[in-house]
Design goal:
Order of helices and strands: HEEEEEEEE
Mean pLDDT: 79
Structural class: alpha+beta
Largest sheet: 4 strands, antiparallel
Low-confidence stretches: 5-25, 34-41
Shape: globular
Strand content: 25-35%
Number of domains: 2
């Protein structure tokens, strides 16, 4: 009886190992390790930062941004973030309120890295004729 139970147990373990190996080959190569967790902004995963601002630079909501945008002049802002966004990051901006109420007239936005720092973006907003204008906007930064 013991030999039979030992054989059954060894067979079951063998089938589990073979099954896992077969499933890995069936669905592609077996990964060497688990994928990195999200949120690190490095080899540990992806970091996501975002913020929405009113036309005067007042922050509506922010994830990873430090405070209100610095309103430099009409339609010109500096948006600061808590971490370095200079390396391995992409960013984009869009005109908008960043809320479920209100609208923004047709407008444009330009976003680039702020010279002299690794934690800020330089933002310009324009009305539909291309003139500088204080317009509500949203910024999204993705680092990986």
């Amino acid at each position: 009886m013991r030999k039979t139970l030992g054989f059954v147990a060894a067979s079951a373990v063998g089938l589990m190992i073979a099954g896992a190996s077969y499933a890995g080959h069936l669905n592609g190569p077996v990964p060497k390790s688990a994928p990195p967790p999200v949120g690190g902004g490095s080899h540990d995963g992806v970091a996501l930062y975002a913020a929405a601002f009113l036309g005067d630079g007042t922050i509506i909501v922010g994830i990873g941004s430090t405070t209100n945008a610095v309103h430099i002049s009409t339609g010109v802002y500096q948006v600061d973030f808590l971490k370095n966004i200079n390396s391995g990051c992409v960013w984009l901006g869009s005109p908008g309120i960043g809320a479920f109420s209100g609208t923004v007239a047709p407008s444009m936005i330009s976003v680039t890295g702020r010279a002299g720092t690794t934690k800020s973006l330089f933002v310009q907003t324009f009305n539909s004729t291309g003139s500088a204008a204080d317009i509500a906007f949203e910024i999204h930064v993705i680092c990986g």
